[in-house]
Amino acid sequence: MFDDHLQHIYDRATANSRIRTLTDFHSDGVHLWHEGVRYLSFASNDYLGIASSLARLADASLHGAGASRFVIGNHAAYAHTEALLAQIQHSEAALLFPSGYQAHLGVIPALLGKDDLIMMDKYAHACMVDGARLSGATVRRFRHNDLQHLSTLLAKHRSHARACMILTETVFSMDGDRAPLHALRALADSYDAWLMVDDAHGLGIPSSDSIVPIEVHTGTCSKSLGMIGGYVCGSRLLIDTLTQSARSLLFTTALPEAIVMRIAHGLDILMREPERGIKVMQLAQRFCAQCHLPVPSSPIIPIILGSNEHALSVHYALRELGMWVPAIRPPTVPEGTARLRISLSASHTEDQIDLLADYIARSDRLVKKPIG
Questions:
Q1: Which of 35, 37, 186, 371 is most buried, judged by most C-beta within 10 A?
Q2: Which CATH fold would you assign to the domain 21-47+299-366?
Q3: What's the whole-number mean pLDDT along residues 96-122?
Q4: pLDDT digits (tens, 9 = 90+) for 287-303
């Protein structure tokens, strides 16, 4: 019976401290409210502190778009915002989607099909995985950031495919590390393959990888830009092609004008104030130095604890001290790598970072188990 099937899935999903619940939060800058208690938050993706700035922007047009962009949903704010996105990603053109997830569900199947090959990093986000599966292309996963494994797979499978695209991310959401884009570019060129890179967690964060040529550059407006929406950047021909063939763009309601205007506002801040990205990385380096962690590549800092129980214990210990640091568990991360995922913002202060480092050590003593 269907109910029995559902119960089996539920029981399996909630075993070993994996149960997840939907709960309400209210964000207030770098603080959040939960069940009437105010916490200093280290859970937001507001890396550059732009979301707080957007809250002060006067309301524009708050009504919905009413239809897809191809009916009556398009508006002037789109062209301006897409031009800014293209400029930031050093591309000829850009295309906005309602979300980053929808962007990948539309872009990958629009570009690849059953005669093609997709090489994808093992840690690539679920939206890339789902888009790749939806395309019907042959999908091969290479070990995370393992160039030798990717090279072996390309040597074995590339000659059998019409086209090949390598899928990865600039910054990986659970580990905070970066893809070796320069080396991936060289490998792609040697096998006549293309690069598709998701910049969801890397936008605005200082990096030397911005000079790497990339055929398909995707991202989201919900992290560093403090809003919602997704995008793809590339050549004018790429954008024109996707405008005709990306089904998740063609058959969905457009983003409201107010949302698109706020995306543009976030992009303006990002371009005017690059010091936000510099500051958040300085804070990340400060925290890691105090906690004797490796030099960070991004504002995402994982502290691997191993078991689900240990991660939850430290999470609750920090919560008792007024800190909200998420515990991330399988299947979101590999078995045996349950962790704290610390997400820093340019809106955090040095004092708050120092307090977090102190409380991490204090929570370690509270749970009677060493961190790391």
A1: 371
A2: Aspartate Aminotransferase, domain 1 (3.90.1150)
A3: 96
A4: 999 999 999 999 999 99
With tokens 């997709």, the residue in question is: 118
CATH architecture of 62-272: 3-Layer(aba) Sandwich (3.40)
* Residue 120: its H or E element: strand 117-121
Q: 104, 201, 279, 348: which is the annotated catalytic residue?
A: 201
Which residue is associated with the tokens 């199947």?
Answer: 109
Q: What is the pLDDT of residues 213-236, one digit of tens each?
A: 999 999 999 999 999 999 999 998
Query: In whole angstroms, how far apart are CA 255 and each of 140, 174, 260?
Result: 34, 28, 7
Q: What angle do CA 103, 251, 237 make, to 5 degrees?
A: 55
Residue 223 designated active-site:
yes
347 is catalytic: no
Secondary-structure percent of the chain, ordered helix, strand, coil, rounded to 5: 40, 20, 40
User: Does the active-site annotation cover 173?
Assistant: yes
Contact call for residues 127 and 167 (beta carbons, < 8 A): no
The β-bridge partners of 324 are 41
φ, ψ of residue 231 to 5 degrees: the values are -155, 165
* 26 has a pLDDT exceeding 90: no
Which of the following is catalytic: 82, 121, 175, 198?
A: 198
Both tokens of 344, joined, read: 């820093």
3-state secondary structure of 92: coil
